[in-house]
Structure prediction request, 531 residues.
Amino acid sequence: MDYQMQNTLLYVENLSVAYGEKVVIKDVSFVEKDVTREGSVTGQVIAVVGRSGRGKSTLFRALTGLIKPTTGKILIADVATGVENDAKEVHEGDVGFVDQKYTLFRNKTIYQALMFALRHKDFSKEEKHNTITKYLQEWGLEKAKDQYPCELSGGQRQRTAIIEQILCSGHYMVLDEPFSGLDIGNIEDVKKAFSLITSLHEFNTIIYSTHDIELAVELADSIYVIGYPTIDGKTADYGTIVKHVDMKERKLAWKEYGVEHLEVVKEIKAAMLTS
Amino acid sequence: MKKIFTPFENIGKNSRLLIILSWVILVAVFWFVSSMGERHLFPSPEQVGRGFRELYNEGLMVHVGSSLWLCLKAILIAITISLTITYLSTIPVVMPVARAISKLRYLPLTGITFYLAIIISNARTMQVWVLVVFMSTYLTTSLLSMVSSIEQEEFDHARSLQCNRWEVLWEVVIKGRMDHVIEVIRQNLAIVWMMLVTVESILVAAGGLGFLIKNSDKFMNHGRIIALQIVILFVGLSIDFILDYLRKAFFRYSKI
Prediction:
């Protein structure tokens, strides 16, 4: 499938995060660019896989600006300046973050939560109301708009958490294990949510972690494996990127899941087991 | 039948009612039996009934009102102090002060009353402040525990929605836990209610249920003592019920 690489959307250089003496991730570097395809709006879907305790969540907290890197830098596209390829350092709030539990404000109904997410936007109250109504209709949440998180199903919570971040944070969204503990129906809902987000804008970029390698290979166009690197025959005790699979390069992105994908799954599993 | 004696067994509504009724009858029978004869531990139901009538004629309702008013004043002041300390405890420089106040709950009441007596001369004000000092330490302890039990994800969620640190405090801790504050008051109420009666019985000048119990105690009027205990228990349980009702009515999302 033909595609082109345009502006740099995410630039991570020599990132490391340590809690006191304990180095959790080190030497993490990668670049993700805007992918364009003729005739369709294509956002980026990036999967991060790796065994437990390798630093996926720490990487995500750094990518969302929730923790400051010990060394290195994370740059994202600065679309506000209007200058092409302009970049800025990531700060909390620039990148949407949806955690595994789909955390929401417990004291706000869906409508109130979405209104809160739009509070900094320069819209009139009516425009905000219309935007929210549009999203609620598109995402099948219209009937639940006056319900609190404790009254929602797992699927409704997920969708609310995702819309909240779309409305507030712009083009980037990080999801920590969005498929964890979901039934088959909810998994389909999240997949639909992914394609909805990526079809909204060229720059929209989803970064998610998962333990389900098949799902990573099926949905992502770029996959990073985080693990403990082997240096001079010894396994280090910090996480870093040990493998990158570019599904676009392999002509497997945006394609129906098939035998070739299974080969990638095997490759990734092998990389995970040795790191 | 066997079910009601088996651990973790689920029983029907009717069985549950029957069990409660059986216990009530058992307590009533025990009371009647133990209050018969020349020497007895508990006063007879007639004595208690007489105690109720005497108390009512001596202005029981005024004393209940007085105790409730004292309780309300003390709770309002104590919760204001405790909430301020707790919310500010999220600021690193204030945290040690909040923790120290929580630890002061191990101070004996006598020590507190000694110093308060030096500063305050009015008996009623003294009662309020003894309770406030006492309650604040307990309320602060529970409120600090409420804040520390908020999961990191909730703070991260607010931060990812571009809330600055003060907004996080406002949205997650203050607004987001309003229902928990009522629950904290409710849970601390029993000990406060118990203290209120003690404080009133130490400083009898301003009346109240504590004053009545002290008086009945002095004249060994068993009937009145039990009648008063029942009144105190009933009023305490009523406040507990009202607070729980208010929490559920005002905070639909509250599932504590």
Observations:
- Chain B has two domains: 2-34, 46-250.
- Residues 46-250 of chain B form a domain with the MetI-like fold fold (CATH 1.10.3720.10).
- The two ends of chain B are 33 Å apart (CA to CA).
- The mean pLDDT of chain B is 88.
